Amino acid sequence: MTDTENTPARAGFVALIGEPNAGKSTLLNRMVGAKVSIVTHKVQTTRARIRGIAMHEQSQIVFVDTPGIFRPRRRLDRSMVAAAWGGASDADVIVLLIEAHRGLTDGARAILDALRERVGGRPVALAINKIDRVKAEALLALSQQMNDAFPFARTFMISAEKGYGCDDLLEWLAGEMPEHDWLYPPDQVADLPMRMIAAEITREKLTLRLHEEIPYQLTVETEKWEERKDGSARVDQIVYVSRPGHKGIVLGKGGETIKAVSQAARQELAEFMGRPVHLFLQVKLRENWLDEAERYREMGLDFRDGDG
Fold this sequence. Notes:
The structure is a single chain. This protein is α/β, with parallel strands linked by helices. The chain has helices at 3-6, 24-32, 75-89, 106-118, 136-149, 166-176, 194-210, 244-251, 256-273, 293-298; strands at residues 10-18, 50-56, 59-65, 93-99, 124-129, 154-157, 218-227, 233-241, 277-285. It folds into two domains: 3-176, Rossmann fold, CATH 3.40.50; 194-306, GMP Synthetase, Chain A, domain 3 (2-Layer Sandwich).
């Protein structure tokens, strides 16, 4: 028998937490080796807890990419923050990401305070991300400052975008997983239904295209999914906007914006699925979608967590 056959299977959950835009989605995609979480230069773009699955030797590591933790103002914000802490409370290991060039911010201090109350003895690792943006001396000083503030099990210097240090983090996490049968098939990379992945891809393209105009005031739902005999899929989606003026912005002059978004989303979805996709988008006004329980369920969020 080989060493691998003698090694017991391991499986567990890892929560990636941090402030918005710390690089959690980028790290998740790097670890999994496939794009399963929306990545843009905007903050607060991850709304649902997205599970990406990585294999390392005999360990299956299920990553929970949580929304960024920030000071919530709206119902959607409160549900997103509740989802983030829910992901952390369910995990075997927690990884806190901070940006090297931002250091120990007030937001990071607040997360550390909350971790002291919520961690319950589970290991918490620190991942200092975007290390290519600062000098080595500053990195060492920040690492010391963070470890003085909280008893991290391990500290990793990484660049999620370029891959620096990510293999070391993955290997450590694999060893921290409890002995357990694998939770998913070894070739599965996410436990999201394709309908939601498709909606996330379209929402990412809208966010990138619209920049600062309305990215947090819209949502995308996959209304219909039809498997065709030729192996392709027809996907019908609705883009909901909350204000009358936003519909025109999403459509663009002569439908230019929505056509470009549809083309980019269709191409990425086809690459993800490895087969042709026919994508059809509609834009509809739904002024109160931010207060509708059904919209939250579509995003994998708990509507009740927005109360209070």
